[in-house]
Amino acid sequence: MAPKILSAFISPLPLPHHLTNLHSRAFTIHRSPPRPILCKSTPPHRPLVSPPELAGPEPEGTGAASPTRGDTFLLRQRSIEAARLAMEEVKPKYAEKRKEKREKLPKASSAVASCYGCGAPLQTSEMDAPGYVDPDTYQLKKKHHQLRTVLCRRCRLLSHGHMITAVGGNGGYSGGKQFVTAEELRDKLSHLRREKALIIKLVDIVDFNGSFLSRVRDLVGANPIILVVTKVDLLPKGSDLNCIGDWVVEATTKKKLNVLSVHLTSSKSLTGIAGVISEIQREKKGRDVYILGSANVGKSAFISALLRLMAEKDPIAAAATRYKPLESAVPGTTLGPIQIEAFPGGAKLYDTPGVHLHHRQAAIVHAEDLPALAPQNRLRGQKFPVTSSVEPSCLNGFSVFWGGLVRIDIIKVLPETNLTFYGPRGLQIHMVPTAKADSFYQENVGVLLTPPTGKDRALDWKGLEIERQLLIKFEDIDRPACDVAISGLGWIRVELVKKSLANAELALQETPKELHLLVHVPRPVEIFVRPPMPVGKAGAEWYQYQELTEKEEEVRPKWNF
């Protein structure tokens, strides 16, 4: 008789009809002893899956109490789901904190269209305010989805030569509803600290100290910086750019600003622009590129030159040249971030509002006088010999006026001392005895001493309120003593001309080796005393390169032009 355990699983098959009448003994089925069939089961009193608080991998084994693979899989999935639910309860708290921490200002508003020339949001209500567009024009462009091609009324006037400032406290305007403040423009750059970006920092070579933005790390955080020096085409003829580049790197190192490289450029002649493009392509690495600098340093002109050169090989940059930021001599032309589609692959180029520095001359003169502060041609040093035709004792007691913006009182000088003025050619130089300097200034400011231009503006002019005493030492008669840089204007080289001295070394031993000056400027213009910039043909002769160790040479940024 077949075992009972087999009868539960094997049912007898029906025999064919012709075999149904055979004797049961004549038909024998030989069966091998059955092998026991093992099955995994879960007893009824045990739950299929443990509760989440007890969930976890259980030991595998055999027997009636062992979990099946399906049970183990379900148990693991329940554990994962329980952990996910627990994290979702905690995640909103951390997500909210991260959101507050990483909350940043928009790069360029996508909800409100902006003027492509200055970045100001387009509006149709305030005609005197930036961003104003005629209502009919606005509706027509909006209907055809062409608001990105709109130039506001202020930009149109600027493009026709009008000098219209829009930043309160600059250009002779105290402010108002049609003006934005310098603080508001600076706030628009605050998100750069939390942005992964490549920073192109621009500095004006004519106003190197005044436009440098020493605390630029407060704006850009730890983002890499490429330093671009603009307007090198304005340097005196014969200037050696190798000497200029080394001088710039040395000055940058002293300011403790770590940069990737230094580029000497000219947006007018395109000098050095190709090197900047190569550096950007090498260091961009998918990040957005921001052009940063002080107001009126030449950011928009630099972007135009950049796009012009890139357009020769890149159709994307060629398309971007149609709607490029507006160039103007007015500080504060750009009033908001302007997004430019200049690179393939998604990275963007941004023109940013200029950082307004209150210590520059452009912040205090009237808007109509701003062109007088912007050199258009190569600088030509105006030498002012502190007369050598009289006795050295008679050199003291004279004052030199540089336009209506600077007055230098010569208190004590060495014989054969020269002052060479590098700045706008329109500012005339006048010398009078110091005893008559005050009355001379009052009578001629606005007429002979300009800017300010005109008696009406001279009435509102507060004068030269800041005085700074300078003690300048001559350490080497073979090179100038120093530069006295006036923020936003230019610089004055102080040097000793030894050609007519029979024995220069003996003369220096017999006279005091220092020069005592008193410099007057408007409030709050700053005065910088710096090592002389090696401009002109003579600069390459007396300039001395710094001696560096191998380690210093490795970490020192390289200059390019």
From TrEMBL:
InterPro entries: GTP-bd (IPR006073), NOA1 (IPR044229), NOA1/YqeH-like_C (IPR048422), P-loop_NTPase (IPR027417). Residues 34-70 are annotated as: Disordered. Gene3D superfamilies: P-loop containing nucleotide triphosphate hydrolases. Residues 418-499 form the NOA1/YqeH-like C-terminal domain. Residues 289-360 form the G domain. Pfam families: MMR_HSR1 (PF01926), YqeH-like_C (PF21516). PANTHER family: NO-ASSOCIATED PROTEIN 1, CHLOROPLASTIC/MITOCHONDRIAL, NO-ASSOCIATED PROTEIN 1, CHLOROPLASTIC_MITOCHONDRIAL. This is CP-type G domain-containing protein. It comes from Eucalyptus globulus.
